[in-house]
Design brief:
By secondary structure, the chain is an all-alpha fold. About 65% of the residues lie in helices and about 0% in strands.
Length: about 300
């Protein structure tokens, strides 16, 4: 088997395994938890960038410098500021509520006796259930124009993982992590969870050919997630899992790719095209109806 074949078979599980191992090593060695996430995030982002340069699946998804700059702004602004605001406003109250619940029932809702990896798995099962509900609601409610910012790229590449409208970042960060804070998750388990989910998100959106069928009944693998980014309406409302596909299996929304189907040219939003600039992304939810009306007029 040549190098490209090894990458196709082992790149995805290697990234997940490396994220888990590296996170555990850094946390248990006493590495400052506030530095673990940016350090590992940068590492996996650079890894995905280099892998796309060397093993890119299709030229249609080749990194575009303008779009890349836009997504860096999403990483620096759209993610960090809303999440910091939510944490500053709500974290103390949620932790206090967790302590009150623990005091009333006489035991902690969090499984502190589990090893760190066991706690991370428990956290993943909880947060993925919440994420599944939020993600499905974003697709099937008036909130879709917010989430459409994440879907408006015509390509799949690693930085798409950090693209979120600030208002969606506030809602999804708050909704997902509030459940864990309420259960009393310790900092180490939260850090390991975010290292793992961040690495998965980078590789899940990557423009690298991967054969992940063996994992696609447990994880929201790249082949499943690419269908989720399809323009085809029969595919976009499927595979809602962020990291796990288990809840899609349970609720009947898992959709595997068809044999021989190539979706390189059907990534993006149905009906409209959006300029790949940061200001266009910020305006998209508020110009949603006008953009669709303009498309209808041209047709």
């Amino acid at each position: 088997m040549n190098v490209a074949g090894l990458v196709e078979k082992f790149y995805y599980p290697t990234i997940l395994g490396s994220a888990l191992l590296l996170g555990v090593v850094l946390i248990e060695s006493g590495f400052d938890s506030s530095l673990v996430l940016p350090a590992t995030g940068l590492l996996f982002a650079v890894t995905c960038f280099l892998m796309e340069k060397r093993f890119g699946e299709t030229e249609r998804w080749t990194l575009d410098p303008v779009e890349a700059r836009t997504d860096v702004l999403h990483a620096l602004i759209s993610n960090t500021i809303p999440t910091a605001i939510f944490r500053g406003v709500a974290f103390a109250s949620i932790v206090a509520a967790s302590a009150w619940i623990t005091e009333r029932i006489g035991f902690s809702l969090w499984p502190h006796r589990l090893p760190l990896i066991g706690q991370m798995i428990f956290a993943l099962l909880v947060v993925e259930l919440v994420s599944y509900g939020i993600h499905r609601a974003l697709h099937r409610s008036a909130l879709w124009p917010l989430h459409a910012v994440h879907h408006c790229s015509p390509r799949m590449y690693f930085l798409l993982s950090v693209r979120k409208h600030p208002l969606q970042a506030f809602l999804t960060y708050g909704g997902r992590l509030s459940a864990l804070w309420l259960l009393g998750i310790p900092e180490d388990a939260m850090t390991l969870l975010l290292v793992f989910t961040g690495a998965n998100s980078y590789v899940q959106h990557s423009n690298v050919k991967m054969d992940t069928q063996a994992f696609s009944w447990i994880f929201a693998t790249p082949d499943l997630h690419r269908l989720h980014h399809s323009k085809r309406t029969s595919e976009i409302d499927s595979n809602f899992g962020d990291v796990l596909i288990l809840y899609d299996v349970l609720f009947g929304t898992r959709l595997p790719p068809k044999d021989g189907d190539v979706i390189h040219d059907v990534i993006g939003l149905p009906e409209i095209e959006v300029p790949q600039t940061y200001t266009s992304h910020l305006r998209l939810p508020f110009e949603w109806h006008r953009l669709h009306e303009s498309t209808s007029d041209r047709a």
